[in-house]
Write a structure and sequence with these properties.
There is one protein chain. By secondary structure, this protein is of the alpha/beta class. It has one domain: L-arginine/glycine Amidinotransferase, Chain A (5-stranded Propeller). It contains 9 helices and 16 strands. The protein has helices at residues 35-39, 43-50, 58-74, 119-129, 167-177, 222-230, 265-273, 284-289, 294-297; strands at residues 2-3, 23-28, 78-81, 99-102, 105-108, 134-137, 149-153, 156-161, 183-188, 205-209, 212-215, 234-237, 251-254, 257-261, 277-281, 299-303. It has a 4-stranded mixed beta sheet. It has a 3-stranded mixed beta sheet with strand order 4-5-6, with helices on one face. The two termini are 29 Å apart.
Length: 306
């Protein structure tokens, strides 16, 4: 199912080697597990298997997701909604992690989180349905998730080396993207709360323009901060109290136009002081409970390059 606010015309239909170029097409996966599937789980499983603080509320999650899609559509984004009827894939709402869409096609990832392994089949199907050729499908022992990828330029990709994107996955990405003219730069991700928690590179930093990032510096490696500053990137620093509320998780709709999770007033204020137009969406269920913000929920299929 697709919702669009503009005709495709003769434009290219895929290629998203940018974090901030105007977003033209996006793939999302609405929360679509059945209430019966959610109810049949032992509540303890939500913490140990999925890492959620409480059993998810399907109704609230759907409302929040719909609010984000409305923002995308109002911004002129053509939204592809993956509604393949596969139950109990709760994290599949975080479509950003499925892979990376290059100008040549998609690379489907092998997720680092064990419970997300079945999503690779869903991701490959969704990319093909959206008209994006699949160049490669990563297989274990290599693992990667899109939350560890930050495009600094169409030919420069920062890749978080985390518990979700391992050394083999990073090497495979370098081998795949190198022939496409893309330089892959590794960025160490901190241990955080360990392998069971969600700690991606994008848990600490998001770009809102080619020279402006929102970041929580205490969890970024010194070498990463120095590398970004050497490229002329300035930081909107997330305060301690807004890091747990996804203050770092900011989705650029275009240069200096972004979506933030509600409940981060200082981040919003500091962005607006720098001339950034800010949209907000509620992220209590998807964000505070399930652990994903606007960047996690959107797989960019097509961006213009600034």
């Amino acid at each position: 199912m697709s919702r669009s606010t503009r005709p495709a015309g003769g434009r290219r239909r895929f290629g998203a080697q940018s974090a901030v170029g105007p977003l033209r097409r996006a793939l999302v996966r609405p929360p679509c597990w059945s209430p019966e599937a959610a109810a049949c789980e032992d509540p303890a499983v939500w913490k140990t298997r999925w890492g959620y603080t409480t059993p998810p509320d399907l109704g609230r999650a759907c409302e929040e997701h719909a609010a984000l899609v409305d923002i995308l559509v109002r911004a002129g984004v053509e939204v592809e909604e993956c509604r393949s009827p596969r139950d109990a894939l709760y994290d599949s709402v975080f479509a950003c992690d499925w892979g990376v869409v290059t100008d040549a096609g998609a690379v489907v990832f092998a997720p680092g989180k064990e419970a997300r392994q079945p999503e690779a089949d869903l991701a490959e199907e969704a990319f093909r349905d959206a008209g994006v050729p699949v160049l490669h499908r990563m297989r274990r022992p290599a693992t990667a998730e899109g939350g560890d990828l930050l495009w600094l330029a169409p030919d420069l990709l920062l890749v978080g080396r985390s518990y979700r994107t391992n050394a083999s996955g990073l090497d495979e990405l370098r081998a795949l993207l190198g022939p496409l003219g893309v330089t892959v730069v590794p960025a160490p991700v901190v241990h955080g709360q360990g392998p069971g928690s969600v700690m991606h590179l994008l848990s600490a930093i998001s770009l809102v323009d080619v020279d402006l990032a929102v970041a929580y510096l205490p969890v970024l490696a010194v070498e990463t901060v120095e590398f970004l500053r050497a490229r002329g990137i300035e930081f909107v620093e997330v305060p301690d109290e807004e890091y747990p509320t996804l203050g770092c998780n900011v989705l650029a709709l275009a240069p200096r136009h972004c979506v933030v999770a509600a409940g981060n007033p200082r981040v919003r204020r500091d962005l607006e002081r720098r001339g950034v137009a800010v949209e907000e969406f509620p992220a209590r269920e998807l964000g505070l409970n399930m652990g994903g913000g606007p960047t996690c929920l959107v797989q960019a299929l097509l961006r213009d390059y600034p």
